[in-house]
Specification:
63% helix; mainly alpha; 73 residues
């Protein structure tokens, strides 16, 4: 076990049992977060998205629709 894991283990032993569920929930949330795809991985998984983004980057900013144009403002 590395040093940080030992330190975490020591701190957990200082907690009352009633707080251990909270620690477990936090650890499980971190594990889920690490398993989730990054935004890049998600977008790359959509067929044609990478190409669409590459094409969009070629557009001049002044030629792009504004948030108001698309009803987001």
């Amino acid at each position: 076990m590395n040093q940080i894991a030992l330190k975490i283990s020591e701190k957990i032993r200082e907690l009352p049992d009633t707080n251990l569920y909270e620690v477990l929930d936090f650890i499980e949330a971190l594990i889920r977060k690490n398993r989730e795809m990054s935004d890049t991985e998600y977008l790359e998984g959509i067929p044609g998205m990478a190409e669409s983004i590459a094409e969009g980057r070629k557009e001049a900013v002044n030629d792009c629709a504004t948030l108001k144009d698309i009803g987001w403002e």
